[in-house]
Amino acid sequence: MQEASNWLNGLKSGFFDLAAAMVNYLPNLLAAIAFLVGGWLIAKLVRNIAVRLAGGLNQLLENISPSGALATVRISPKIASLIGTAVFWLVFFVFITAASDAAELTVFSNWLENIVAYLPYLLGGAFLIFFGYLFSIAIREVVTTTLGSLSVRQSSFIGAAAQWATFLVAIIIGIEQIGVDTTFLIVVIAVIIGALVSGLALAFGLGAKPLTTNLIGTHYLRLQYSVGQTVLVGDIEGQILEFTPTGFNLDTAEGVSSIPGASYFYDVIVLRTEENDDA
């Protein structure tokens, strides 16, 4: 009987200790529930505000640039809803962290606090990338319009290149803001750009070789011959009518023939004189 009585007393003591612990923990539990409920309501309100701000941004872009490149930059309802959902969970995540802290869930709370402390960097990087994209589109429009007014043929290509260069800089700055080391990314981009520039330079050099040869040959032809002289270039004989930037025109028996400047290097040119004609 004595052992049974001791066992019942121990059970009562454990029960009362558990009840006391639950009573002591109840304020923490109620505070955690209050954080969750209040956070859910506030996150829902912020989500609605974010969706409305997206619509306001569309209206601002419409007022700033109703036409042109920026006219195509609009936030669709689906994207606005996605942004609102992301904002909702970000705000609610902060209140979940506060609730876990109030509930004295130390390990979980510390883990959430580290994530919350990182959120400003993540949001700042996303903000920089987004507005860098908008700014890059504006740069493209300005460059394309300016070069187009100057009758530059490749204005669209140059404008697109300026846009992507600006957006790439914004991406690198945004990633650095997030806290990611961009050294390797910058090296890779530099290698890619260097390869592209080298390829373009090589292609331009190979493609411009005939033009360069004609320009240089015409330069030396102007020094040795003049308009009105009769010359024999290969099998073509005629009188020089005029020099062009890349060659000269001959008045032949068959009509006007265009001779490229490269003939100076590759063909035998004979200057006809009166003695040649008499012979």
Short description:
The protein is α+β, with helices and mostly antiparallel strands and 279 residues long.
Explain this structure to me?
By secondary structure, this protein is α+β, with helices and mostly antiparallel strands. Among the domains are: 1-104; 226-278, SH3 type barrels (Roll). The protein is built from seven helices and five strands. It has helices at residues 2-64, 77-102, 106-149, 155-178, 183-224, 263-266, 274-278, and strands spanning 230-233, 236-244, 247-252, 255-260, 269-272. The protein has a five-stranded antiparallel sheet. A hairpin with a 2-residue loop joins strand 2 and strand 3 (247-252). Helix 2 packs antiparallel against helix 3 (106-149). The radius of gyration is 40 Å and the shape is elongated. The N and C termini lie far apart (153 Å). 14% of the residues are buried.
Keywords for this structure?
single chain, 279 residues, alpha+beta, SH3 type barrels, five-stranded antiparallel β-sheet, 7 helices, 75% helix, 10% strand
